[in-house]
Amino acid sequence: xxxxxxxxxxxxxxxxxxxxxxxxxxxxxxxxxxxxxxxxxxxxxxxxxxxxxxxxxxxxxxxxxxxxxxxxxxxxxxxxxxxxxxxxxxxxxxxxxxxxxxxxxxxxxxxxxxxxxxxxxxxxxxxxxxxxxxxxxxxxxxxxxxxxxxxxxxxxxxxxxxxxxxxxxxxxxxxxxxxxxxxxxxxxxxxxxxxxxxxxxxxxxxxxxxxxxxxxxxxxxxxxxxxxxxxxxxxxxxxxxxxxxxx
Length: 247
Prior knowledge:
247 residues; alpha/beta; Rossmann fold; 11 helices; 8 strands; 13% strand; isomerase; Asp_race; Asp/Glu/hydantoin_racemase
């Protein structure tokens, strides 16, 4: 996905545009963030011009991070079933609002006959735009996501090296996520996040991809000097470009 909605002009109502199936609920706040970004980025003149989104927000899908760490197939089975159901419901292309779950993207793509737009690729393409000659991108994500290698392999394909938190800071980041999910405010977690980010910058990160929605909300409070890439923002812009502008 290389297109963006930045220069998109409204031309006709959304009835002729593609319906987008959304594999969501991983967690629900990430799905809501994606929905909000799509609404904000679509250059409509009336409400009727918005995209049709078929959203399956299912928090009951087995925990992705735990499934990756345990090599458990239940999450993959649930994601494949969700993708197939969205296609039957009328989706003409798919997105999945969870970074770590993109480890299962090949199985999802093999199960449907419609395009699957990757938020990993959308974020990495943004990094490549910022560093056209290559460079080093920080990846701030859960331990399962980091172990899966979804960001690292995509960055490598674009000639970009990845910078990850060291073992101690990776544990600290998981603790920050647990606190945020338990109700801590972004301000409560700004100090440890600052420490983690500063260490990644010291290790050579020229931008940081934030592979977790809860962390993104906290990162917005930090005012980091280097570019921060939000995969939800990037996939929302990309899906508006391909499903709304190009139809």
